[in-house]
Amino acid sequence: MRQRLPPLNSLRVFEAAARLLSFKNAAEELLLTPSAVSHGIQALEQWLGTPLFVRGTRGIVLTEAGSAYYPKVQAALAMLAAASGELLVHHGRRLTVSAAPTFASRLLMPRLAGFREAHPGIDVLVDTTRERIDFADGIDLAIRMGRGGWQGVVAEELLRETLVPVASPELAARLADREPSDAPLIHITSVAEDWAEWARKTGRALGDGPAGLSFDTLLLGYDAASRGLGVALGRLPLIDAELAAGTLVALWGPPVPANTGYWLVSAENRAGDPAIQAFRAWMAAHPVGLA
Question: What is this structure's pTM?
Answer without folding.
Answer: 0.61
